[in-house]
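EI: anyone free to look at a 273-residue chain?
SC: sure, send it
EI:
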Amino acid sequence: MRARFEFQARLLFQATPFTTLLPVHLDAAGTLPALWVTAKNANLEKVILYLHGGGYFFGSPSTHAAMLARLSEMSGMSCLLPEYRKAPEHQFPGAVDDAVAAYKYLLDRGYAPENIALGGDSAGGGLAFGLLHVICSQNLPRPGAIFGLSPWSDLTLSGETLRSNAKAEAILPVERLPETVAEYLGAADPSDPRASPLLGDFTGAPPVLIQVGDKEILLDDSRRLGAALQAQGVDATVDVWPDVPHVWQIFQGRLRQADQALVKIAAFLASHI
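SC: here you go
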């Protein structure tokens, strides 16, 4: 699965010309690799910390680099994509710990927290909001904004659209989700807010933008997460798009709605970073 997605990404997704792709390590031991993705016009003092999707099993910075290259060009921000640990080799909370380490890496190197945006798609979107929960609950410096692309925010699998949108969903096999959760969490509690940020503490969180398609099984994960954020006083917008597949934004350059969605994300970032 991992090899197939890497191969497909190389064929389908092309980075913006003159983008810099720079592999780095975020720790002295060299156990947390990452990829800087920077368009030629990007402001190096402003950064998107982006956590890729893939069900906590597959995907990598390289599979999402083309989408982030386009977003870097549109937003004028550089992007850092950590290669967080994945299941089944590394179960929860390994991915969360790596996301926290990546955020602290930026703070330790002098990035102003208000110049950092968090982002992620699908499982990576859930991971981004899990990271935000840790930031808020531990009273770490808050980032300037966060965006999620169809974030998987509820590993208890209680969303109604897991059933009502099962036949319309074009990408995710709903019948495999319990197995995925079990392999990722192991013996951990699925209601842990780091795994299911729908249940998280977002006191003092920055503005939020969530994009999701109306035919996705994760539609309720996005709508309920937006409502939970709003109930805690957060400026949160849930942007529902008609007739688009899960994480359609990755098809930038090939799908009109993908380019339009990235334009809206870039405008959101420009308003808050």
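EI: Strands lie at 20-25, 33-38, 43-51, 77-82, 116-121, 145-149, 208-213, 236-241.
SC: 👍
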